[in-house]
Amino acid sequence: MNLLNLLGRKSFPHGIHPDEYKDETKAKVTRRLPFAPEIIVPLAQSIGQPAKAIVFKGQRVKRGEVIAEADGFMSVPIHAPVTGIIKAIDIVPTAKGSKDPAIIIATSLSSGQRVFDTGERNDYLQMAQEDLVKAVQNTGMVGLGGAAFPTHVKMAVPAGRHIHTVLVNGCECEPFLTTDHRVMLEKIDALLLGIKIAMRCVAAPKAIIGIENNKLDVLDAILPHLPDDGSISIEAVETKYPQGAEKMLAYSLLGIEIPSGGLPSEVGLAVFNVATLAELGYLLPIKQGLIERIITITGDGVHKPGNYITPIGTPIRFLLEFAGFIGDEAELILGGPMMGMPVHSLDVPITKGTGALLILDKRATKNDDILPCIKCAQCLQACPINLNPSELGLLAAKRQYDVMEEQFHLNDCFECGCCSYVCPANIPLVQYFRIAKALNRERHLQAQ
Ligand code: SF4
Ligand code: SF4
User: What is the whole-number distance in angstroms between the Cα of residue 383 and the centre of ligand 1?
Assistant: First the structure.
């Protein structure tokens, strides 16, 4: 293996170097959070179609049991994160800011161990590709890196496409977040098994685990476990945001550009997050579903920052009580500070795509005064996909959303937030772009 590849010289143009803020949690062994007395499980937990509830009020459910079925191929089932009684199926506030249907479970005191193991097994080495994709769907797995894209959909490679490499994304480039780092240290066997399952699903002969060079302890930990045939390798890339975006990682590791508006499979790649594959490697062989995930709880005033194995559906209020927080001027963010979502209700539950709960002191966050653009071009220098955020921002202020889309490639923006981060005028560019995209989507729907 090339030593330079291990040290992380490879990179992509532009991007930013924000402070990391990972020291508080990266060296702490993952701990298990207790069960909250009430668990709120939204039916929409992927970017696909919401699941369909198959339980009723008053029904007793066991941890691991299916409580909502997939509604078609672009959907995943949902499993009970705790043993308990269905208290209601109701509309609840969610991290997206909307109110959505959810199954609410009153947790039983003896909620059980990690999974309700039926003893059934998937013989994944013998399964046909189609059956394997179905088995992945049955786990309810979505991208745990935040995208919440149904994993089985990525694994069903369109006819006529050939995947030459599975990219396993362990960059975790957002400040504060360290869940993937811990997964790569603590779940190596499950991760390697998940990678083999993904390679089998997409018929790829090789896989590369990509990490940022701020995690070289992961190299030491994983290298001795890699298969002798060289089919799975690990390489470090430069620590730079947003190195963990699939376009950036593909370019940094392999020099391959994923085309504008295109999918990785168009250039022979399938990209998965490390936590997704580690969880899949654990759950698929034992025919179980996703009921918990690791999240980073950290920030100003948190007494017990760390990484916690958390049942899906645990309300933020419970996380705050457990991790211990003192302060009255807190801004809560689900996810990282760059791409996460601020939350305004403590009743919002964590979902499959939630990687972190950040508690930031409002007094320490950026000044909110928005000034006029001074044409400094720092946003152009930061944008990793060469958009013109300055011009897009001016068009957004004039509400020319159609021009943003048709002439300035708004839909290529993947909302990394680099432009907002560097803007000396505090212009909330990425927020403008999110709104513009949402309004354009609505306009197109109405036109249909
Ligand atoms: S948020 Fe969009 S426009 Fe801004 S830097 Fe990221 S990709 Fe470029
Ligand atoms: S960084 Fe801000 S001030 Fe500078 S050109 Fe971009 S939008 Fe204008």
Answer: 5
Q: Ligand 2 pocket test: which of 16, 369, 375 has the largest number of ligand atoms within 8 Å of its C-beta? A: 375
What the block records as the tokens of 312 is 């899906």
Distances (CA, A) of 2 to 9, 39, 198, 236, 423: 11, 48, 25, 11, 38
Q: Which long-range contacts (CB under 8 A, 24 or more apart) does 231-234 make?
A: 231/199, 231/205, 231/206, 231/207, 232/192, 232/195, 232/196, 232/199, 232/206, 232/207, 232/208, 233/1, 233/206, 233/207, 233/208, 233/209, 234/6, 234/208, 234/209, 234/210
Decide: 213 and 173 in contact? Cβ < 8 Å.
no
User: Which residues does 105 contact at the CB level (< 8 Å), separation at least 6?
Assistant: 38, 39, 41, 61, 80, 81, 82, 84, 85, 86, 87, 313
Q: What ligand has the least distance to the C-alpha of 430?
A: 1
**Confidence band, pLDDT 50/70/90 cuts, at residue 59:** very high
Rounded distance from Cα 238 to ligand 1 centre (Å): 19
Ligand 1 site: residues with CB under 6 angstroms? Answer: 382-383, 385, 387, 389, 413-419, 429-430, 433
How much is the pLDDT for 200?
95
Bond prior to 242 in cis (omega within 30° of 0): yes
CA gap 145, 22 in Å, rounded: 17
pTM of the predicted model, to two decimals?
Answer: 0.94
Query: CATH for 3-28+119-283?
Result: 3.40.50.11540
Instruction: Note the pLDDT tens digit of each residue in 152-185.
Output: 999 999 999 999 999 999 999 999 999 999 999 9
Using CA atoms, how far apart are residues 257 and 263, in angstroms rounded to an integer? 10
**Cβ atoms 107, 39 nearer than 8 A:** yes
Q: How far is the CA of 433 from the centre of ligand 2 (A)?
A: 14
Which residue carries 């049955």 as its tokens?
A: 138
Band of the pLDDT at 418, cuts 50, 70, 90?
A: very high
- How many whole angstroms separate alpha carbon 218 and alpha carbon 196? 19
How far is residue 40's CA from residue 23's CA, in Å, rounded to a whole number?
31
> Whose alpha carbon is nearest atom 2 of ligand 2?
423
pLDDT tens, position by position, 400-413: 999 999 999 999 99
Nearest ligand by distance to the CA of 408 = 1
Assign 112 a pLDDT band (cuts: 50, 70, 90).
Answer: low
Residue spans of the domains in the chain: they are 3-28+119-283, 378-447
> Which DSSP letter does residue 298 get?
E
Residue 158 sits at φ, ψ, to 5 deg, of: -60, 145
The tokens 């034992």 sit on which residue?
Answer: 286
